[in-house]
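pinned: reference chain
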Amino acid sequence: MPTRRNILGAAFAATLLGVSNSSDAAETLTLDLSVYDKIEPVKYPFGWLRWLMNDQIDPKAELTLGLAYIEAHQSNPLHLHPNSAEIVHILSGSCDHRRGDQWLKLKAGDTLRIPKNTPHMARAGEQPLLAMIAYDTPKRIMVPVPEDKK
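pinned: its structure tokens
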């Protein structure tokens, strides 16, 4: 039996996803909360990335959404995204975040916008860093940048 909350949630999500037909919405919104556990994180020397939405998860995706985990005192490599801007929202921990030539201190609750083609990286503080990351494209491209080049 659909509840008011489920119907409102489906309508809201359908609006966000651009779904116009209610049966399409129901199909699109068949959510299984255990799916998160089925998506394997991509492991790196600094930590991991876990993709929650992109063109590989859903061919109709219009963005990329994920979680980034960086071990304490570790950093991801300096890189840029030639095809998209990035939004980083710190869920827990803190970091020094390089955006271009600028270093910023970010803590839980802070949100940072990184423009397209801007070299950036994060260095976790005393505790591991967990951040939600979003890109305005379903197919994020990451290009490493040598440290001596900006």
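why pinned: Residues 51 and 73 are 23 Å apart (CA to CA). The helical segments are 4-17, 22-28, 35-38.
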